[in-house]
Amino acid sequence: MRRERIVPVLVYTLILLGITACQETPEKKQDPEHTPVDRQKKFAIVIHGGAGTIVRKNMTPEREAAYREVLEKAIRTGYDILKNGGSGLDAVQKTVNVMEDSPLFNAGKGAVFTHEGKNELDASIMDGKTRNAGAVAGVTTIKNPVDLARAVMEKSEHVMLAREGAAAFAETQGIETVDPSYFYTEPRMKALERIKDQEKTALDHDQKTAFYDPYIQDAKFGTVGCVALDKNGNLAAATSTGGMTNKRWGRIGDSPVIGAGTYANNNTCAVSSTGWGEFFIRGLVAYDISAMMEYKGMTLCDAAREVIHKKLPDLGGNGGIIAVDHNGNMVMEFNTAGMYRASMDAKGALYIGIYDN
C-alpha cells in the first residue's frame, strides 16, 4: 500500500513540474488515446508583449492593469477569429494590430526612438501551410507594419522589403500610412534622452540598468508577437517591433528575420521571439525549435526549453518565445524575470501572465 501511494504522487509531481516549466496548458499532457478524434476542430492562440526584467516590485497596480487589459483585448481579438473559423494568418495579424496600436508596447504606436530621434519599425509574418513569409524593416510611416509584411508575402515576389522601397510598395497596396509624428510618445523620447545622457545603448529590461524605468526597460526585448493554430490545422506566426532604443546605422534585429524572430511550419510549430535580437539571429532561435522537433523528434516543450535555457544563454543571449504546435500544445518559455504573455485554447480558457511564476 505504501508503494502504491508514493508512485501516483511522484508521477503527478513530475507532470506538474513539466507544465510549469514550459508554461503550457494542461492539454499538452493528454494521453493520445483521449485526444478528441476531430483534431481539425482544435485551435489555439498565444501572444507576447516582450520579455525581460519585469518584476512585481517595479510595477504599479495601475500599470499592471493596463498591460493586462491590452493583452486580453489582443488575444480575444484573435480567439474570436479562430472560433468563427477564420484563418490563423488573419488571427495573428489582427491580434498584433491591437498591440501595435497601444503605446504600452514597443511596436507600432509605442515604438522606441533611434539615436537620431526617429522611429524605425520592423515586422514579419509566416504561413505554416505554405511556408510563405513576408517581412519589412526600417519603415517609418507605416501605422501597422505587420499589415505591410503580409502584403509583401501575398502581393510581391519577395520575402523582405526595407525602408524607402517598403514604403513605395505600401503605397501601391493601399496600406495605411501616418506622419512620423504619430509614433512620438513623450515617455519614449525621455527614455532616449536619459540613455544618451548615460552614453550607452540601453537594452530593454536590461538587468545592468542602474535604475528602473519601464520605458527604458522596453528598449531591447520590447517586441509583440502572436502564434496560432486554426480549425483547419494551419499554423501562423507574426512579430512586430520598434527595435532597440538608441539603435544606430540602420540596425535591424531578429523580428523581421524569418527563422530568428518568426517561423511557422504545419509539420511542427509556429514561433514568435522576443529578446536580444543579435543573439536570436545568430541562433536562428525560432527555426531551431522547429528543427529539433522535425529532426530529433522532440516535443515542443522540450525543444523550447533546450533553446531558451541552454543554447541561447550559451551564445550570451536572453529573452523568450511563444509557440504552438500542430496539435494545439502551447508554450511560453523565457529565461528572464518576466514576459508579457497570454494564451487561449479551443475551450476558451484564458491565461494572462507577466512575471516568472
UniProtKB/TrEMBL annotation:
Q: Care to name a GO molecular-function term for this sequence?
A: hydrolase activity, acting on carbon-nitrogen (but not peptide) bonds, in linear amides
Q: Which domain of life is it from?
A: Bacteria
Question: Pfam families recorded for this chain?
Answer: Asparaginase_2 (PF01112)
Q: Which residues form the active site?
A: T223 (nucleophile)
Q: Provide the GO biological process annotations.
A: proteolysis
Alphabetically ordered keywords of this record = Autocatalytic cleavage, Hydrolase, Protease
Instruction: Quote the record's binding site residues for substrate.
Output: R251, I252, G253, D254, T274, G275, W276, G277
List the InterPro entries: Ntn_hydrolases_N, Peptidase_T2
Q: Which residues are annotated as site, described as Cleavage?
A: G222, T223
PANTHER family assigned: L-ASPARAGINASE, N(4)-(BETA-N-ACETYLGLUCOSAMINYL)-L-ASPARAGINASE
What is the protein's given name?
Isoaspartyl peptidase
Specify the species: Sinomicrobium oceani
